[in-house]
Amino acid sequence: MADLHKTVTDLEMDKDPSMDVADKTTGLAKRERLVVQETWKEAGKLGWGTVGLALFNLYFDRHPEYILMFRAFKDISREDLRTHARLKAHGLNVVNALTGVIENLEDTETTVLLLEKTGRDHVRRKLHSKHFENLHLTVIELFRNVLGPNFTPFVEASWNKALTVVMGVVLNSLKQEKIAQGVTDEE
After folding, report:
1. 138-173 b/e with 16+ CB inside 10 Å = b?
2. Which end of the chain is more exposed for a tag (fewer CB within 10 A), N or C?
């Protein structure tokens, strides 16, 4: 983690004006994109299955009612679910999708397509904006826990900015797909 601290500090302090040029699609400055990518790589050192499991355990700890939205988890006790292979597999799927997005933040066309697919895929799961907003908050909390003192205000602001863009694209796609399918949105 000492290397991460140096990387984050270097990115934050870099005086190169090109580091502050915002991407026209995401609004992320190069330094923000790089800190998101570097901290994601650091989290990956724990193993993506571990990260996915930790993410969903934290999500369900904060929102236990969400467990009922997952048919595969309904008959599993909360204690058993904490280490259950089904939860680990789902967490790994989500983390792999996030990896695809994060690794391609500079390729906004690909990133937007990945996120739009995520939005469309979640219509049938009857998810709403609050579920994604709470996932955003859970990712931030997870990173605060995983990165410890390396989760600086700069890192947090960069992640919040990136996740706001990510969730915005997902939610717009979710909304458009609901309209296309004639699904009423009752949150």
Report:
1. bbbbbbeebbeebbbebbeebbebbbebbbebbbeb
2. C
pLDDT, greater one: 4 or 116 = 116
Q: What is the pLDDT of residue 42?
A: 95
Q: Nearest-CA neighbor of 105 among 16, 169, 149?
A: 169
Token couple for 61: 């700890």
pLDDT in tens, 96-108: 999 999 999 999 9
Cα distance between residue 88 and residue 33, in whole Å: 27
Kindly report whether the global pTM for this prediction surpasses the value 0.85.
yes
Distance, in Å, from the CA atom of 121 to the CA atom of 98, rounded to the nearest integer, reads: 15
Cα distances (angstroms) measured from residue 32 to each of 15, 46, 104, 178: 14, 22, 14, 32
Question: Any idea where the domains of the chain sit in the sequence?
Answer: 29-178
